[in-house]
Known about the structure:
alpha/beta
Amino acid sequence: MKKPSTLGELxxxxxxxxxxxxxxxxxxxxxxxxxxxxxxxxxxSGIKGYGDSVTPQIINAILSRHNMILLxxxxxxxxxxxxxxxxxxxxxIPAIAGCEINDNPLAPICRQCRNLIEEKGSATPIVxxxxxxxxxxxxxxxxxxxxxxxxxxxxxxAAKGGHALGSELSIHYGLLxxxxxxxFAINELPDLAGKIQVGLFNIMQEGDVQIxxxxxxxxxxxxxxxxxxxxxxxxxxxxxxxxxxxxxxEIKTHYPISLELGxxxxxxxAWTRRATDVAIPDFVRQVVEGIAFRARVDQRxxxxxxxxxxxxxxxxxxxxxxxxxxxxxxGDSTPVARAIDIYAAIPAITGxxxxxxxxxxxxxxxxARDLIKxxxxxxxxxxxxxxxxxxVIEFFETGGSIHLSETDSIKTSLAQLTRVPSxxxxxxxxPESIRLAEAExxxxxxxxxxxxxxxxxxxxxxxxxxPQPQDxxxxxxxxxxxxxxxxx
Length: 488
């Protein structure tokens, strides 16, 4: 069906009804949400882990016709959720052609549109705005002015049009009026200067704005949504109390509550599909995700800043890239992500953690390596809770060593691993690339469990212990010190 292109055609169509004419955007979002719920459609697509927590609260806020704020640490999908709110808008709506504030042809609020309708009547041209065009987002920074958000008087426009400075026809509209009949989002709200936050009072409570002190009122129809990091309340700024009081719903986001859920999110977001397919064993995904989980509880890392979900996403991308690079150099046709590739992804970790004083003393690189070791230990315990690797450990205790390079081919690395008794036996039916990855994972797990040692220069070796009195009467040999302390 062809959409109306003039005001006259619009009035004679279903869009010209009184119900449509008087429906505000919050009611529009409410109706579309109810339809989604009745038809059992997904409320948000591509956003995992919030089905029992954040999503119900957002649904309640929309049903209540509230403005809302998403409060949470970095990397918790706050911006994505705000942008996904456009799914609750109509596919398209009519607006007067050329209007800067997307005026409703059936109920215009700006002087220019009212003059145009008086002049052209039913021939007034109409355009249709898609739901994506009705979302306006602004990142709050200290240099944002009230003119950027609300608007200002434009002397040049007044001079060219011969209008008085106090006329509506002399206004240069800011972002908020330009989002009329849409959604206006402000990210990192506490970074917005207090006087700018005060400028939002009228639109949130009385539903209008005033520009430059002139008695010009615009009854805008807009949904205001915000995001903020709790750290910002004390670190860089704060939300002024009257503004916070006017926000209908405060919704707190969170990180994935389980490792499995985190793996799903990272798998969805990370760019791992390359020209040459790289096999990613499950343990690699779990270790990468485990790094973020361990970092979020590590006392050496600042809890107020949080550990973004971008850490495992970027880390997994680097892991795959290192495996891809190795395949290019060695000519391997079946590249696989290995434990050694996770250490090569340290640059994707160090920039995403904020250290406390103790962590700063050790350095971000050391902390990153320790987190990787903890993640390997956690994953290894789950994969092999009761397997005895006595033969493998004895190989290293009796002086054996294995050195694996990240640039060695699959065959070269397997030739090294075949020297370790029984290490490859359990994977005899698997492809060579998988055998290599799983065997290396076992070695990393034994190292993380303090059963064997490892260094960058010597590779995997036995664990040294301090000489005991009886050692003074015989040749010193490498042995495993059977520590009774619990592993963590």
